[in-house]
Design goal:
This protein is of the alpha/beta class. About 35% of the residues lie in helices and about 25% in strands. The chain has one domain: Spore Coat Polysaccharide Biosynthesis Protein SpsA, Chain A.
């Protein structure tokens, strides 16, 4: 099994893909498997992808299905990161921070979070905070632009539910299943590491990509996804195969 893998999930942001790949390659340890998963971009993407990067293209099915393509491509890796195509690493060392903290805490899932609250009030973190320089933070909901997992998540939880179309809600539902599988080592489902999150810069969060679609289409997708998550919350399933439709 390979030690490290990273995937960029891409849709219609060709103008910044080469720079993003440069940033990823410059910040990652040697020997990392790098994949670009393209969700049906109309313009040719291949000219923007480095020759030593694996390129996977499929029909336009939405963020959840495209992230399943990424997870499928990285099944042979123990530590896995997924970046959306608007999040740029700006310093080395970020991957190794997640790797170290995952090993120290037996936490198998990290994501960027809304808000920056310092972790407090959780007894199983007090010793950790005293002995290590990493500062856990948590928020009320996850951002979909970044995720870090170990291969244990793929074995026990599988992938995203492709019933979610476009963007919105899929990442939270997946994280909830990871928590129910007892792969998050404390009561807060969504957390990050302060020392790692500041090693990224976001470019065009709500510009380009899926946000080029008509506003009404985006509203309809979000409305449909909200209905989907309410329906799925009534079930008790945890594992979902890495399917695309």
């Amino acid at each position: 099994m390979l030690r490290r893998g990273i995937a960029i999930v891409h849709y219609d942001r060709n103008e910044q893909l080469t720079k993003l790949l440069d940033a990823v390659k410059n910040s990652m340890p040697v020997g990392t498997k790098i994949v670009v998963c393209d969700d049906g971009t109309t313009d040719p993407v291949e000219p923007h992808v480095h020759k030593d990067v694996i390129y996977i293209k499929g029909p336009n099915l939405g963020v959840a299905a495209n992230k399943n393509r990424a997870l499928w491509a990285l099944q042979d890796c123990h530590y896995i990161a997924i970046l959306e195509d608007d999040l740029f690493p700006i310093e080395k060392g970020w991957f190794e921070i997640y790797e170290d903290v995952s090993s120290l805490t037996q936490n198998h899932h990290f994501c960027r979070v809304q808000g920056k609250e310092i972790m407090g009030g959780y007894p199983n973190f007090e010793k950790f905070l005293k002995n290590h320089s990493y500062t856990p933070i948590f928020g009320s909901s996850p951002r979909g632009d970044f995720t870090f997992i170990t291969g244990e998540v793929l074995r026990k939880v599988g992938g995203f539910n492709p019933l979610f179309r476009g963007a919105g809600y899929a990442h939270g539902e997946w994280s909830d299943r990871i928590a129910r599988a007892k792969l998050i080592s404390h009561p807060a489902k969504w957390w990050d590491i302060m020392e790692a999150r500041d090693k990224f810069k976001q470019k065009g969060d709500t510009e380009g990509g899926r946000w080029k679609r008509p506003n009404q289409e985006i509203k309809n997708q979000l409305k449909g996804n909200k209905i989907t998550i309410k329906r799925l919350q009534k079930t008790n399933y945890i594992y979902h195969p890495l399917s695309f439709e």
